[in-house]
Design goal:
Distance between the termini: 174 Å
Order of helices and strands: HHHHEHEEHHEE
Strand content: 5-15%
Helix content: 55-70%
Number of domains: 2
Number of strands: 5
Bound molecules: adenosine-5'-triphosphate, magnesium ion
Number of helices: 7
Structural class: alpha+beta
Radius of gyration: 73 Å
Largest sheet: 5 strands, mixed
């Protein structure tokens, strides 16, 4: 039954029963009805054969069902495999296409980058470098400007000093004493020469031309001391008495030799300082004397000036010094 199926098995059982009965058992009474013991034997044989046939048939059917399902599975597997192959093929095509598209996209982006962004960056780099040069130039310009500001400040200070020295505002506003103190302070700072000024605290104001003349006289004498005498100190005495003002400027420098003094009196001397003083004093009715022997004992420049609206007992003598 397992190998051939139910029908052949039944046939085989019948043939076996028939064969046993007619070929293996004594043939006598072969065609007679079997007696009781034989009937049991036949029945037992049939029963066992039926069980074997049933078992075989069942196994065969199971096997057949299994084979069928296996074949169905294999068929499905083949179908799936075919589908997978198709899908794989499609995937491969898709991948290839994707790669191709990716390449094309990359090529396009590279071209775009080179043509647009690359050009813009090159232009930007040029702009930046020219900007850098501008900034460098600006830094140099800033340094030049700050130098120029310093120069302007220096010039302003110098012009202010020159202007004040040419005609100190204090001279008109506060009078000779204040102007002289201011000038002497600056002169000492500039030259290092110590200057002693003897001037009464209550020295009254003089007419403007007299104050200016005296201020110019002191200014010129101190400048000469600085330039020619090599003296470390100077003394100025200004006193007013008997309708005149006496001014003496003294130093302890190398002095002026007699020859030089003679030269000063002549008209052709190059310096204009002392000549100008003389002329100014002359115009105001005053005099100028220079006392110096030129042997290192210094020089004294003495001037006298008449005061028009003279007041007595106001001036203070310059320490009893007199011209040599
Ligand atoms: N205090 C002094 N000590 C020594 N020599 C002096 C003194 N004052 C003037 N001198 C001499 O007298 C000369 C004439 O002086 P002056 O002031 O007239 O001319 P300067 O100072 O040379 O030139 P500037 O015209 O600029 O004043 C000077 O060149 C100098 O030799
Ligand atoms: Mg001079």
């Amino acid at each position: 039954a397992f190998f051939c199926g139910f029908g052949p098995s039944v046939l085989a059982v019948a043939v076996a029963l028939f064969g046993v009965r007619y070929w293996f058992i004594n043939p006598s009474h072969s065609f007679s009805l079997p007696d009781q013991p034989q009937s049991f034997g036949v029945l037992a044989f049939l029963l066992v054969s039926s069980v074997i046939v049933a078992v075989g048939e069942r196994s065969r059917r199971n096997l057949a069902a299994l084979q069928e399902s296996q074949e169905a599975l294999e068929e499905r597997l083949r179908e799936r495999t075919a589908e997978l192959d198709i899908a794989n093929q499609g995937l491969g095509d898709l991948t290839a296409r994707l790669l191709q598209l990716q390449d094309e996209e990359r090529r396009r982006i590279a071209r775009e980058l080179h043509d647009s962004a690359g050009q813009s960056l090159a232009a930007l780099a040029m702009n930046l470098s020219s900007l850098g040069a501008d900034i460098e130039r600006l830094a140099k310009s800033a340094a030049t400007v700050s130098d120029s500001v310093a120069l302007v400040n220096d010039m302003t200070r110098d012009i202010r000093t020159i202007s004040y020295l040419l005609h100190p505002p204090l001279l008109d506003e506060a009078g000779l004493a204040s102007a002289l103190r201011w000038y002497i302070k600056g002169f000492t700072e500039r030259s290092g020469i110590k200057v002693h000024l003897e001037l009464a605290d209550d020295f009254e104001r003089l007419p403007q031309d007299l104050e200016t003349a005296i201020f110019r006289l002191v200014q010129e004498c101190l400048t000469n001391i600085h330039r020619h005498s090599e003296s470390p100190i100077a003394a100025i005495g200004i006193a007013r008495s008997d309708g005149e003002v006496r001014v003496e400027v003294e130093d302890q420098g190398k002095g002026i030799s007699p020859d030089k003094k003679l030269e000063l009196l002549s008209a052709g001397t190059p310096g204009v300082g002392i000549r100008g003083l003389r002329e100014r004093l002359r115009q105001l009715g005053g005099t100028l004397e220079i006392a110096s022997n030129g042997h290192g004992r210094g020089t004294v420049v003495a001037a006298r000036l008449p005061v028009r609206n003279s007041r007595t007992n106001v001036a203070v003598a310059a320490g009893g010094r007199s011209a040599h």
